[in-house]
Design brief:
162 residues, transferase, Acyl_CoA_acyltransferase, acyltransferase, Putative acetyltransferase, 3 helices, acyltransferase activity, transferring groups other than amino-acyl groups, Aminopeptidase
């Protein structure tokens, strides 16, 4: 996606659940031991159109056939702070600037809601995502957390002043 193209986002709806699980399955396929678990780890994607905590929003964008090809979520866990979640771009759509466009859209929304700081956690295995975050001005801190999930995930903490 070039900078000149407009990103078409919409709020996720419950009908997107299957596409979202497919999206994550495709994204996780390149990472051995990384699994999609709707029962424990990804409960929020069972009904993606449901209200989210902390004034959160889950956005999706579709490919030319109307299938969800990328998503991003934001919520506001504390005053002046927004948290980016669920940034996923289907592998056949990667490398086109879609991830960057999604992050910038989330940042714009966060600023409009009064956030002055953006934070996120990213699986230690997602090195391409880490490069993207650093390119967009995020700093990786020394904070690390283990999730104790089916994928045995550990995550790095990133932050940025908006």
């Amino acid at each position: 996606m070039s900078e000149a193209q407009t990103l078409s986002l919409r709020t996720a709806e419950d009908r997107d659940a299957q596409d979202l699980f497919g999206l994550l399955t495709l994204c996780f396929a390149d990472f051995p031991g990384c699994y999609v678990d709707p029962h424990d780890d990804l409960k929020d994607l069972l009904k993606p159109g449901a209200a989210r905590k902390n004034d959160g929003l889950l956005w999706v964008t579709e490919d030319e056939s109307g299938r969800v090809c990328a998503c991003a979520c934001v919520d506001f866990p504390e005053a002046a702070t927004a948290e980016l979640h669920r940034l996923y771009v289907r592998p056949d759509q990667q490398g086109r600037g879609l991830g960057s466009s999604l992050v910038r859209a989330v940042e714009r929304h966060a600023r409009e809601k009064g956030a002055t700081r953006m934070v996120l956690w990213s699986d230690t295995r997602f090195t391409d995502a880490h490069r993207l975050y650093r390119k967009l001005g995020y700093t990786q801190t020394d904070r690390l957390r283990d999730l104790g999930d089916i994928s045995n995930s550990s995550e790095y903490f990133f932050e940025k002043t908006l």
